[in-house]
DNA-directed DNA polymerase
Amino acid sequence: MGVMAGSFSNKEVAQILREVAAAYEVKGNSYFQARAYHAAAEVIEQAGTLIKDLWEQGKLQELPGIGGNISQHLDELFRTGKVKHFTQVKKGLPPGMFPLLQIPGLGPKSAYKLAKALNVKSVNDLKKACQQNRVARLEGFGKTSQEKILHSLKSFLTKTPARMLLPVADYTAQKIISFLAPLPSIIRVDPLGSLRRMASTIGDIDLAVASSNPAQIIDKFLKFPDTQEIINQGKVEASLRLSNGTRVDLRVQDAAGYGALLQHYTGSKRHNIHLRELARTKNLSLSEYGIRKGGKRGRLIKFATEEEFYSYLGLDWIPPELREDTGEIEAAQEKKLPQLVKTSDIKGDLHVHCNFDLEESHDAGQSSIEEIAQKGIELGYHYIAIGNHSPSVSRHNQDQIRHLILAKQKEINRVQKKFPQIKLLNMIEVDVLANKTLALDDNNLKLLDIAIAGVHSSLNQPKEQMTERVLAALNNPYIHGLAHPTGRLLNQRKGYELNWDKVFTACIKGDKFLEINSFYNRLDLPDMLIKQAIKAGVKLAINTDAHEINSLNLIKYGVATARRGWAEKKNIINTKNTFP
Ligand SMILES: [Zn+2]
Ligand SMILES: [Zn+2]
């Protein structure tokens, strides 16, 4: 086809990857590949840097979720204009299904059926087919589905873009910060808003700069590469839109008043409203410039740091992750803020996938046991779980599974001898099957150092049934904990519902952990549930669920989510020096 390397926008690359994800999903043989491609598409679409530039700099794998395999395929794409592997994956599928993937709520399988049965080739074709009542007559669709599709088609044109995933927003912000960093007049730069509070998804990117030379800062900021449009250019603030549509706002303040600016624009709105009410009782008024005594016309007091700002109000400094008005202001008044867990507290990762061939139910990791051990040492870990999904139960009996586990143990033992400084744990993420049984029997579970239960199929079971399913797993004496407990995928699906009281009770009774999964589109448990779990006395583990060693670096986002849930070091089991 001869597309020139370099003619790909992030959006185009994302669409290519989405089509591959859809093909995997329709063919139904590769759950993890489908998810990995979908997630990579999301990350690339949201990245504030041109993916092709990253490729030229050899930095593709800097992006979260772009592992070895995908980056190799992208390399082929940029060099030759197409990817042999992608063509192969899409082989046999009607090309008309792919444009339909853009319609919200229309999954790949439906797109496939519509394209195949009705010869639909475009969004417009589908609209016509609906209007001619042809979709309603199609088996498995019916009148309701047809109306739903028509409704989606209407909202399709006015749809709002998805929010950015936290690691992607963080990555983009860091790019801009390092672009500005060489300027001599810069004293400090910080992200603001939901990014500084480390929320799981982010809207716009906001940055604050401490400097006595705002003109110099703004001049440089507006020269950031990949800028599509300058939205606003003022004396102390400016806004631009990146080529991927992300808006970036920058504010400059002199060092003497920087603390108030940082506090004001970090929010959250609710936190600041509560803070203003508190200030009013002391006859003070707050703004991004500082605090005025005796109301709005009083003398302005400036604050170089947030610590001084909060202290003036009689409060301990509140970590940004807590600023959601869920009790942090009261706690700061009483000097009872939690000592939040830090990334440096983490002593091991209990959920990493390796490429040892365990003939798994869904896809294996991409890194070898040896590579994982080395990466663990690099991160200063004392132990690391060498994981796999459970072998597929349709293709293996328990005796065959036993042999696979023992073969893997042999390989772990071999690598362990080479790396005595880190303890390698034989781990399996055990499928909790739709009928409430586990994919491994007790005799096989016993062979493992750690077994984590995970729900990966029949995700739309009703709440009570799903709860029973999870409880059955947690009641097994050989299961240590529950992976990604809600099953949510950010921007993609909400996750299943569980009766959390029952789940918490089972965890406490059986001494099981709930996972805080750091994978960038999971961040699961969500912060609110972390807080509830801690209150109930449930122990937690922060893991990455990495399928290649790069993703082990995502741990800081799991830690950030834990911090948003008020977690302290003592609540997290993998802050201990040994496991268990
Ligand atoms: Zn899983
Ligand atoms: Zn996993």
